[in-house]
Each structure stands twice: as structure tokens, then as C-alpha cells.
Amino acid sequence: MSLGQRVSSDHQLTRLLQIGVVLEEVVESRAAHHLDSLPPEERAAIDEEVRELLEEAADESADHRERLEALIDDLEADTVAYEEINALVDAQYGPPEDTDGVLYDQLANEETAYKFYDDLIDAIEASDGEFAIERERLLETLYEIREEEKEGVEEVTEIMEHRA
Amino acid sequence: MNTADQYLKAIYLAQRIEDGPASTGTLADLLEVSPASVNEMIGKLEDRGLVDHEKYKGASLTDEGLGRAHDALQTYCIIERFLANVLEVEEYQDEARALESVIDDTVAERLDTIIDRPGECPDCFDADRDACERLEVGDGCAD
Questions:
Q1: What's the CATH architecture for B67-132?
Q2: Which of A12, A50, A164, B64 is the most exposed place for a label (fewest CB within 10 A)?
Q3: Residue A75 belongs to some domain of the structure
Q4: Residue of B nearest to A122 (CA)
Q5: pLDDT at A15 over 70
Q6: CATH code for position A87
Q7: Residue-level pLDDT at B141
Q8: What pLDDT does A122 receive?
């Protein structure tokens, strides 16, 4: 068992970045499928604001995924094809029951992603290990993605608050 | 998962292996640390009301310690299954141990939405094999 919260090898870092990719795929896949999965009358009730939020969330997650994959590529490790993960996410995906469910699910996804990057940054900063990619570039990318996840959480919260 | 949670998980598994209190030696083997480190941490967990320790017998989880050990084992189980069934990692046990300290319960729960974890988790965890007894590797399916 590894005691202590730090990332000490390229291999471990690669795995963690892969988990980040999968979390982004979950956000992307769910955001893209939320509208389709709702019953027609619920779908019609979704306003433009929520539609835009979901579209932006899907685009942003695709961007995050590509940035994480660029880091993984430079660590020279194998990764799993996006299509394969997407199929798994779809297979296990229980559609939200109503508009609130769509927003709550989106909020939970963004919050989880934020928490993940926050923990990952802490674990990297706690380590003095050398990686095959520049530490500065790695942390800068993760800081930026974490900030965008934070903004995503705030955006969903704001919409939920003024709809309440 | 923090260090305390890793110890609670190990005590839970050692209690099952030994069918009684967890001995220092078994915990040291499971955690790959020295018996002295185990004793020091057991003392801290006892102070926090998570463990009862009886000299010459070993450590037992209190009700609160048991709840936390369950959560820690569930998180570990999710990471193992995720590595084995989604990322198709062969050395999923070693890698799960390396990752468990960085993966939070919230994140594990989200990963759990794309794996098929049985409802009886963590009771179906096989301590000797260090994996869920229903985790089958190689067919891409959890059950």
C-alpha cells in the first residue's frame, strides 16, 4: 500500500491523467446526451440557457481531454480509445428525470472534476519526483483546467439559483 | 484516501483474514511498513476512537472505524475495477494501491457510474486475493 498522498512516477502520473480523461469523457458524453434522453415534453421545456450550458460544457470537456491527452502522449504511455469509453459511459448512463436532474448531474460532474484536479495538483506538488514532462507545463495545464472546472461549477450554480 | 483510511482498510481485511483482532505483524505485511510504524498509528487511531487495541491480541475496529473502513475499501474496490475493466490494466492491484491515496471518495463514486459494482460491495472483497471475488479480468466484464 502506498502511504502518503503524492505522485512519484511517470507511470502513476499517466494513470491519473487517464482518469482525468475518463472524467472529462463522462462530462462530455452526459452533457451531449442529456437533452436526447429527456421525454419530449421535458425536452421542450429546456430553455436556451440550459442548452447553451450543456453545449459549452461538452466543448470544454473535449478541450480538456485533448490537453490531458497531449500530456499523456509526451509521457509515452498507452491510452484507451475515446470511443470505447464513450460506449461504456452510454451503457451505464441513467438519464436524468427532469430539467433539475440535468442541472444536478452537470453540477456533480463539474464538482467531481474540480475535486480531482485539486487533489492531483496537491499530490504533484507534494512530490519532488522528476517526470518526463516539464513540471511547470504539467502544473500550468492542470491549474488552467481546474480553474475552468471551478467556473463551470459557478455557472451551473448561478443558473440553478435564479431558476429556484 | 488518507493514511488513516489505508490503515483502517488494512485492519478490516486483517480481521477477516485472522477471524479476530488484527495482529501488528499482519498489518505490517499488508501495509508494507515496519511493525513500529503500525503500533504508532494504531495508538493514534485508538485516541480517535476508531480502533480498540488489546495488548498481545491486536487491533479491532470500533463501529465508527468499521464505517470508515467500509468506505475506504469501496473506494479501493472501485479503483481496482476501473483499472481492470475500463483501462484494462493487468497489474491492477499494485496500481490501485499506488493510486488510492490520490483518489477521493467523490471521484471514486463518479468512476463507479461507469463500472458495474455489485450491491454487496465491500463484503464480496476477497482479502487473500486482494480483489473483489466477483472481479474477473480478461473478459472485459466485471461479473
A1: Orthogonal Bundle (1.10)
A2: A164
A3: yes
A4: B102
A5: yes
A6: 1.20.1260.10
A7: 38
A8: 92
Are residues A5 and B116, on separate chains, in Cβ contact within 8 Å?
Answer: no
In a domain, A3, yes or no: no
The beta-strand segments (E) located in chain B are 51-54, 58-61, 125-126, 131-132
Closest CA of chain A from B101, distance in Å: 5
Question: B34-43, long-range: CB within 8 Å, 24+ apart, which pairs?
Answer: B38/B7, B41/B3, B41/B4, B41/B7, B42/B7
User: What percent of chain A stands above pLDDT 90?
Assistant: 36
* The three three-digit cell numbers of residue A122, written as one number: 496537491
**Searching chain B, which residue's CA lies closest to the CA of residue A84?**
B86
Given B33, B86, B98, which is nearest A88 (Cβ)? B86
ipTM for the assembly: 0.80
pLDDT band at B2 (very low <50, low <70, confident <90, very high): low
Size of interface A-B (CB pairs under 8 A): 85
Q: Which residues on A lie below 8 Å from B82 (Cβ)?
A: 19, 22
**Residue A4 lies inside a defined structural domain of this protein:** no
The distance of Cα A122 from the centroid of its chain, to the nearest Å, equals 18
Structurally, chain A folds into a number of domains equal to 1
- Cβ pair A1:B89 closer than 8 A: no
In this predicted structure, the answer to whether residue A64 has a pLDDT above a threshold of 80 is: yes
B10–A120 CB contact, under 8 Å? no
| Class of CATH domain B3-65 | mainly alpha
The dihedral sign for the CA sequence B26, B28, B34, B36: negative
Residues of the domain holding A142: 10-163
d(C-alpha B95, C-alpha B93), whole Å: 5
Q: Say if A2 falls within a structural domain.
A: no
